[in-house]
Amino acid sequence: MELKKLVKISDYEWEIPPKGEMRVPGRIIASRELIEEMDEKVYEQVSNVACLPGIVKASLAMPDAHWGYGFPIGGVAAFDPEEGGIISVGGVGYDISCGVRTLRTGLTREEVLPKLEDLIEELFATVPSGVGSEGEIRLSPQKLDEVLVGGARWAVEKGYGEPEDLEYIGERGCLPGADPSCVSLEAKKRQHRQVGTLGSGNHYLEVQYVAEIYDRRIAEAFGLEEDDVVITIHCGSRALGHQIATDYLQVLARAARKYGIPIREKELVCAPIRSPEGEKYFKAMACGVNCALANRQVITHLVRQVVHDFFKTARVTLLYDVSHNTCKVEWHEVNGKRKKLYVHRKGATRAWGPGRPELPERYRPVGQPVIIGGSMGTASYILCGTAEGEEKAFGSACHGAGRTMSRHQALKLFRADRLVEELRKRGIIVRGKSKRGLAEEAPEAYKDVTRVIEATCRAGLTRKVAKLRPLGCIKG
Question: What topology does CATH give the domain 3-475?
């Protein structure tokens, strides 16, 4: 991206001044180097989102931003229903509530290393992964409705987890407002046996250890110490979320024409929040969120069983669960007034600062854990939300490293067997369902996550708490 198009606010904040039909400025939060590496499409998409009705403050892009459908991946925008604000499929994405959950094990690296190879093999055998992967839970469309309303609460009630888990999941494990009647039968059929599965693409299950602590006070609140072993799960709503997005692209395309909303890119189709179409999409999207929360909860149950089989003293507890691709109703201050907004985060993580009542009591004094996954074989990070981030970006942060090349490009450049061998030499065990999937997810296909984290923290959106290093990684 050309820097000359932007106005520098600080070393880590850059503005696209309003022009043409833009209702608010664009704001890109990144270092100079990260912006120069971004494709021009990010500039275009941030500007397009700034033209949508009811948008407040700014159209935002996080440091890991890259081209997406409609919104950039790494895009954040909030809309005021009182000002004709809209809701957009492009602002949520296809993998509704794709997110990351980190589990503490109560084990140290020294305890796990002698059994690591067998542990990874058993996790790979137990947690279904890969394209079209299916689990043991079979749900008719009618039974699936209970999942779409109940989310992780449904899973816990069915014995997949512990009641205390819910305290450490956004919305206490269930997003209100879900209505299964707004989800197509086709979407429900596609989800028939996919609850409790990882899926493919950039989804993973990773055994990690705490390599470095940056803020001991916050790390203590999060229950983390150096050399602790944690397990991170990254997945979403699987086929159901994809089908909801596919269905509502058509619904909202008709709505945009009906309400006379000019659309600058076809995936930006939208409807007023307070319209039958907008309300129906929100209810369906909430079903997708709850499906993803249930999915990660069932996987958590499977992981617990495996870990306890290997380590009788293990105590697997939930650190936190954060979602990326969502639209959530939140209260924020805009021009000195407290307003209820519909905040779209597409490839961006919610990052509340200290004192938010939505947070678990344990974390309220310090802020929300923000879990940022790196690319396969690289570091991941635990961050903490800040009050400054709430003011600058509606309490949002990056969600990962961000791709620098397409999956097609990666396939041309990398070989799965060579990648697996190189990682093994570094002490990282990788298991994958397909060679294609592994090649597509080569670490070199992504930005340097450390640079992304540095920009996120220096901009004031988060604070660094801990660095995680991988011991073993399971891919779809």
Answer: tRNA-splicing ligase RtcB (3.90.1860)
